[in-house]
């Protein structure tokens, strides 16, 4: 089994952190092979940012796949730029708070999550990526939820003040992902 994920957004949305957490969870707690390949725009905050995460039972041949099984888009520009890379039957995860366009593809699954709005309601816009990571983990099950959370908790161990809000954010995302998987 191999899962190719592309995450796209703009700098400051935590796109790279989302990808790193997923890659770290895979490396630290499974026997799977994983690659993480970041790509930054001209400037980090506000510029384009995307990353590829490949999780495989076999050695990974190339860190950048020709097509993605799953695509997470955190902004409108990423939807338009990357939608054609999503393979037929793949899943599109959309930050529905700011992505208003509907893709014109009928051959994909779409999971919408208002992650920006949820993060703002929580009083911490920086957790929108953790909410989306929860959505992805809850929907796909590609890596067990508890493994992903353990990685997040380990990464924030030196910042105990942010651990509780990240746990709440991850749980909100998991609920959305699980519900979408049941539909």
Question: How would you describe what is shown here?
Answer:
The protein is an alpha/beta fold. It has a 6-stranded mixed sheet with strand order 2-3-1-4-5-6, sandwiched between helices. The chain has a single domain, classed as Pyruvate-ferredoxin Oxidoreductase, domain 3. A hairpin with a 7-residue loop joins strand 2 and strand 3. It starts with a strand and ends with a helix. The chain is 42% helix and 26% strand.
Per-chain topology:
Layout: E1 2-10, H1 15-29, E2 33-40, E3 48-56, E4 68-73, H2 76-82, E5 86-95, E6 109-113, H3 115-121, H4 128-140, H5 145-155, H6 160-182
Parallel strand pairs: 1-4, 4-5, 5-6
Antiparallel strand pairs: 1-3, 2-3
The run of helices and strands is: EHEEEHEEHHHH
CATH class: Alpha Beta
- CATH topology (level 3) name: Pyruvate-ferredoxin Oxidoreductase, domain 3
Mean pLDDT: 92
Number of helices: 6
Q: Overall 3D geometry? A: globular
> By CATH's scheme, which homologous superfamily applies?
Pyruvate-ferredoxin oxidoreductase, PFOR, domain III
């Amino acid at each position: 089994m191999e899962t190719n994920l592309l995450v796209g957004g703009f700098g400051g949305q935590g796109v790279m952190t989302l990808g790193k957490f997923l890659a770290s969870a895979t490396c630290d707690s499974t026997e799977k092979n994983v690659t993480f390949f970041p790509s930054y725009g001209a400037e980090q905050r506000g510029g384009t940012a995307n990353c590829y995460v490949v999780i495989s039972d076999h050695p990974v041949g190339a860190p950048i796949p020709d097509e993605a099984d799953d695509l997470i888009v955190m902004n409108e520009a990423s939807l338009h730029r990357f939608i054609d890379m999503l393979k037929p039957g793949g899943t599109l995860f959309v930050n529905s708070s700011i992505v208003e366009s509907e893709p014109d593809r009928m051959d994909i699954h779409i999971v919408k999550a208002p992650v920006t709005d949820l993060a703002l309601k929580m009083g911490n816009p920086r957790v929108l990526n953790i909410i989306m990571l929860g959505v992805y983990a809850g929907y796909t099950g590609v890596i067990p939820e508890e493994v992903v959370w353990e990685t997040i908790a380990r990464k924030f161990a030196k910042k105990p003040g942010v651990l509780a809000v990240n746990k709440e954010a991850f749980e909100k995302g998991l609920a959305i992902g699980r519900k979408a998987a049941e539909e």
